[in-house]
Design a protein that fits this description.
The complex is a heterotrimer.
Chain A lengths: L1 H24 L2 E7 L7 H15 L3 E7 L3 H13 L6 E5 L3 H6 L3 E2 L8 H7 L4 H4 L3 E2 L2 E2 L2 E13 H6 L11 H11 L5 E4 L6 H11 L17 H15 L11 H9 L3 E7 L3 H7 L4 E4 L9 E11 L4 H14 L2 H11 L6 H5 L1 H9 L5 H5 L3 E2 L7 H16 L5 H16 L4
Parallel strand pairs in A: 1-2, 1-3, 8-9, 11-12
Antiparallel strand pairs in A: 3-11, 4-11, 5-6, 7-9, 7-10, 7-11
Chain B lengths: L4 H32 L17 H7 L2 H32 L6 H13 L2 H12 L5 H8 L11 H30 L2 H9 L4 H12 L1 H17 L2 H6 L11 H11 L3 H30 L3
Helix pairs in contact in B: 1-13, 2-13, 3-7, 3-10, 4-7, 7-10, 10-13, 12-13
Chain C lengths: L3 E10 L2 E11 L4 E5 L6 H9 L6 E6 L2 E2 L10 E4 L11 H11 L4 H15 L14 H14 L4 E5 L7 H18 L2 E6 L2 H7 L2 E6 L2 E6 L1 H6 L4 H6 L6 E3 L3 H7 L6 H9 L3 E4 L5 E3 L3 E10 L4 E7 L2 E7 L10 E5 L6 E3 L12
Parallel strand pairs in C: 3-8, 3-9, 6-7, 7-8
Antiparallel strand pairs in C: 1-2, 1-4, 4-5, 9-10, 11-12, 12-18, 13-17, 14-15, 14-17, 15-16
Helix pairs in contact in C: 2-4, 3-4, 4-5
Chain lengths: 423, 292, 351
């Protein structure tokens, strides 16, 4: 332990000496907006990391500004851009990529990286996490606070219902069957949130049924594909037919509380909640990959680093340095442990810290293991409108206003009209 | 009579601070909104063009627009009369000598001083199925839980209830002030004439409160179109736009879809609506309510 | 029928006593004025009679009926408030008819009584105005009409003229007095203005700190005040109250006192009271000095220093306001009231 400290100190000193020369010459100032979408004192974590970065890089000053949820952060970043006082980089929703490209707001990392080492760095992340950051053959976003959907389950309730707590459901049928055993008058089998980000949950169901929601260019959606319709039918049936889930919509914001109070035995939720659940659950809980229909599947989610176009070459270099620091294996591991978000590269899971953590708390690795079954989050041109169209279709179905087929066909019609100009 | 030139200068100088603020933050944005609503959405790749009334045509064909407009009307109808009636009842109650009166007044006023976002977060947990306060009470009396915010049939009424709870205390303050301005002799004179409590209220007090009622009514109408903070927390307009209101839709259109020009057109409609209502209220109702 | 009997009426709020054991009787169709400085409890007594305050103890009877705890509306009293208490949102007509409508009097009778009341107060042409469109005097008339139209025999008036200017006040005073006689109302009239009390009252009840100081017809209160308080309250300037030795007191009399009368003077240790109009300035009596003279046209008020005391004289003659003028003051023995040390008038007097 002591040795490690000494080593770190020496490294720090060394880097200080190396950068001292350039620091004296020039001070680069960076403004960065970042969102927080889940509970917990995440701003402190970010501030701590930024402070450390500044200590190691005296030539760079970073103003890290907490900007609300993903929506707020995007609005603030773009407003700053328009007002002529732009941020140089930001953590924004990974799926904002097309909007940002269309607004001509960001630069591709391919145009910023210089050395071979940096090019290699671009390929050091989990490829699945890069899907939302890449389009038109270029990389625009670097994964940072990334998540997938996982299934949290209450082992005590499993035991009470006579189920094996180490055997969470592996497919849809099992989930329904187990749900039925668990459901009582004051307890549900499973809850999948359908407000806030319904399209995200639906991305998982659709993929599990063998169909992704959109193509890689962000200009075609597949909402009316039979497998997609079937997936929505299944979601609706969980409440309407099987009775293992409340009918109507389920609130994203209060779902964790429902789970913590034992009102549902299983919940689908972001890995970003992992630490909060771990800290607050007064029962034995487990985390599992989402069940499969034809295959397993989940969309990734969360925020990426973007570098804005209105920047000087120096600022871009500094931004690169910051991003590299924040996504380095050690920091990614630290971030993951503090929040439940995933480590963004295989190297992160090879660090001693995360290895130790996973060894003591194996569920921290579920999200990573699920990555091999993951796909990109719904993201297209006109993404706000299209996402809302799909959200409305999902909610209309779950509340019984429309059939899955009718609502999804309608949504696809809207999407086709909106995306036509981009094909 | 002609004012000396110097007086004109003085007048303009005195008007200037207010005028500058008004023009910069009210008139200029209004004009640019109207202008913007006549152009198409522009991006860096495809610049915006003049398209005349296309945005308005699109609005007429936009089912969501009609849905949110309808919702807003129901929302106004559902919240305004009830919150005004409740405000009067509460004001009557605390306008008497009763033990702990200031405490009760404070309690009634508390919802008003809480930020809307905080209020919405509280009510989110009231309404949450199974673990929410309302469901727990209902379960205790043997009624099984309802998904208040997840059911299109109940979501708007649920939001109305919260709004009434929030607004009534605010309006109560105005009524309380107005009631304390009514000379006590009027009540005594009415009592001597044999008027009971109800007669006094309907024949004397309520008519005398009319100026307050008009003021509160205008505020309530404006608020029913202006207050959407709670939607960000409670429902985001869902499920399937069942609780979406006009201003929230404008926000979504502008900042979620980045269709600022369509949002401008929607804003123009909202402006016209509100202006028409305010004018109507002032010109039609105003004549009937002032006695002094 | 509408005679009012107040017996031992008391009103307390906690430890504060506002009205203390007050008893008096108002004969039918007469006007009684409750007079006193502010805070003496006169308005409270009125409100107790009206039923707007609850009685702590004692009884109130109107006619043969005890109404101490009766509902205000069923006491058969009407009331005119200092602020008139007209309903601002109703026209004069609606204001006058308010009570009749509440009591569901038939339409025809409403109109009949309205016309009568409006004629009596002279408001026939202003019935469609709102109170805000009336002058102070007109509002007062509207309030009177509202009281008359009720046909209640007892009318309570709470300082009804205090919001009017002096000229209007004199006019309305006469008006109210006329109406009271014409309609035959039994009226209790609260005021702090002695002129109203003197001119209108059949009976004046002078109140001090919640107690009856003196009750009686105006001239009795003026000529023979029971207490030094009553002596000082009535009259402008009030009765002179002088500390005089028996020798001085005797010397001041312009008609020579008898021995018996001198005896009284000797026994008496209190004050000598004389109204200013009885003070004669001349060559005989007590030596004094004129301090100032206020010429008022029909009369002159003279301030006179008598040793270290000040007294007022009212005279029709012109008095030179020459300061330092040496004079003598005297008064007839019939005008003298003697008060003991506690301020009560000695019954003996000279008469």
């Amino acid at each position: 332990m002591l040795q490690k400290m000494q080593l770190m100190m020496m490294g720090l000193l060394l880097s200080v000496c190396l950068t001292a020369g350039t620091a004296a010459a020039k001070q680069t100032e960076l403004t960065m907006y970042y969102p927080v979408a889940v509970g917990g004192p995440l701003t402190q974590v970010i501030d701590g990391m930024v402070d450390q970065f500044m200590a190691e890089n005296p030539g760079i000053t970073v103003n890290a500004i907490y900007a609300g949820n993903y929506n707020d952060a995007r609005i603030k970043a773009l407003a700053a851009l328009k007002s002529g006082q732009p941020a140089q980089l930001s953590v924004l929703f990974s799926i904002d990529i097309y909007e940002l490209i269309e607004q001509d707001a960001i630069v591709a990392f391919d145009d910023v990286v210089q050395t071979a080492e940096e090019k290699a760095w671009l390929n050091s992340f989990y490829p699945t996490l890069m899907e939302n950051g890449k389009t038109a053959g270029k990389t625009w976003g670097i994964p940072f606070q990334r998540s997938t959907i996982v299934m949290y389950y209450n082992k005590d309730l499993f035991r009470k219902a006579g189920l094996d707590p180490e055997q969470p459901p592996a497919d849809w049928d099992e989930m329904v069957a187990m749900g039925k055993k668990i459901t009582t008058a004051d307890r549900w089998g499973v809850m999948i949130p359908s407000t806030g980000y319904p399209y995200w949950m639906f991305g998982a169901l659709a993929m599990q049924n063998g169909q992704v929601l959109m193509n890689g260019d962000g200009n075609t959606t597949y909402f009316d594909h039979p497998a997609v319709i079937e997936a929505l039918q299944f979601w609706k049936d969980l409440g309407a037919k099987h009775g293992v889930m409340p009918s109507g919509t389920i609130e994203w914001g209060t779902l964790r509380q429902n789970f913590l109070e034992g009102k549902t035995a299983m919940m689908w939720h972001s890995t970003g909640n992992l630490t909060a659940v771990k800290d607050n659950a007064d029962f034995d809980f487990g985390v599992a990959m989402l069940p499969a229909s034809k295959r397993r599947g989940t969309p990734t989610g969360g925020g990426n680093f973007y570098i804005f176009k209105q920047t000087t070459p120096d600022e871009r270099r500094a931004a690169m340095q910051l991003i590299k620091f924040m996504t380095s294996p050690e920091n990614s591991a630290r971030w993951s442990i503090k929040t439940g978000y995933m480590g963004v590269s295989p190297a992160a899971y090879d660090t001693a810290a995360l290895k130790d953590y996973v060894a003591g708390f194996p569920y921290a690795a579920v999200a990573r293991d699920q990555l091999s079954h993951a796909t990109a989050e719904l993201s297209t041109y006109q993404t706000g409108r299209i996402r809302k169209t799909l959200d409305d279709a999902i909610q209309a179905t779950l509340t019984g206003a429309k059939t899955p087929e009718a609502s999804l066909k309608e949504a696809q019609g809207v999407a086709d009209r909106l995306l036509k100009p981009y094909r | 009579m002609q004012l000396p030139r110097k007086n004109h200068v003085h007048a303009w100088l005195l008007l200037m601070p207010a005028a500058i603020l008004l023009i910069a933050f009210t008139h200029y944005p209004t004009v640019t909104t109207v202008v913007k609503s006549l152009f198409s959405k522009g991006t860096a790749i495809r610049p915006s063009q003049f398209t005349g009334l296309d945005n308005y045509r699109m609005m007429i064909e936009d089912p969501v627009f009609w849905k949110v407009l309808g919702n807003n009307l129901w929302f106004a109808l559902g919240t305004i009369p009830t919150s005004i009636a409740l405000a009067i009842v509460m004001a009557l109650f605390v306008n008497r000598a009763l033990p702990g009166r200031s405490l009760v007044r404070m309690a009634y006023f508390t919802p008003t001083i809480l930020p809307m976002i905080a209020v919405a977060n509280i009510w989110l947990f009231f309404y949450t199925p199974d673990i929410g306060l309302i469901d727990q009470i209902l379960t205790a009396v043997g009624i099984s839980g309802r998904n208040w915010l997840g059911d299109p049939a109940t979501v708007l009424p649920a939001i109305m209830v919260m709004t009434i709870w929030k607004e009534a205390g605010f309006f109560m303050i105005f009524y309380l002030a107005a009631m304390q301005n009514i000379p006590p002799e009027l009540k005594e004179a009415a009592r001597l004439e044999g008027a009971g409590r109800w007669t006094y209220f309907f024949r004397v007090m309520f008519p005398l409160l009319m100026p307050t009622t008009l003021f509160v009514f205008i505020n309530a109408v404006l608020n029913s179109f202006k207050l959407v903070d709670h939607l960000f927390v409670l429902t985001k307009g869902g499920p399937d736009n069942a609780s979406n209101l006009l201003l929230y839709y404008i926000f979504e259109t502008a900042f979620s879809y980045f269709e600022t020009h369509y949002a401008a057109a929607l804003t123009v409609v909202l402006l016209v609506l509100l202006a028409a209502m305010a004018l109507g209220q002032f010109f039609i109702l105003d004549k009937r309510v002032h006695y002094r | 029928m509408s005679r009012i009997d107040i017996h031992n009426l008391t009103k307390t709020w906690g430890t504060v006593t506002g009205v203390d054991q007050v008893s008096f009787t108002v004969p039918e169709k007469s006007l009684t004025v409750l007079l006193g400085p502010s805070g003496c409890g006169k308005s409270t007594i009125l409100r107790l009679i009206a039923g707007l305050e609850t009685v702590s103890s004692g009884t109130i009877r109107i006619g043969d009926k005890e109404i101490t705890h009766e509902d205000p509306a069923r006491r058969g009293v009407s009331m005119v408030f200092q602020s008139y208490a007209l309903f601002p949102h109703l026209s004069v007509r609606e204001n006058i008819l308010f009570g009749l409508k509440v009591r569901r009097v038939s339409k025809a009778r409403q109109q009949e009584r309205l016309a009568e009341a409006a004629r009596m107060v002279g408001l026939q042409d202003l019935l469609d105005r709102r109170p805000s469109q009336l002058s102070g005097g007109q509002r007062q008339r509207a309030a009177l009409a509202r009281s008359i139209v009720s046909r209640r025999q007892v009318c309570l008036m709470d300082e009804p003229l205090s919001n009017l200017d002096a000229k209007l006040r004199a006019e309305m005073r006469g008006e109210i007095h006329r109406l009271q006689k014409e309609v035959g109302l039994t009226m209790i009239y609260v005021t702090h203005d002695q002129v109203e009390a003197m001119t209108m009252a059949d009976q004046v009840i002078l109140l001090n700190s919640g107690r009856v100081e003196q009750a009686g017809p105006p001239h009795a209160l003026y000529d023979r005040p029971d207490t030094s308080f009553a002596a000082r309250f009535l009259g402008s300037p009030p009765m002179n109250l002088l500390m005089l030795s028996s020798r001085q007191a005797a010397a001041a009399l312009d008609d020579f006192p008898s021995d018996a009368e001198m005896e009284t003077m000797h026994l008496h240790q209190g004050m000598v009271g004389v109204r200013p109009e009885h003070v004669r300035i001349g060559d005989t009596g007590l030596p004094a000095q004129i301090v100032a003279a206020d010429y008022l046209g029909s009369e002159t008020i003279v301030r006179i220093r008598l040793d270290d005391q000040i007294l007022f004289a009212r005279t029709g003659n012109k008095v030179s306001s020459d300061p330092e003028a040496r004079v003598h003051v005297s008064w007839p023995k019939a005008a003298v009231c003697l008060f003991d040390k506690t301020g009560r008038r000695l019954s003996g007097d000279f008469l």
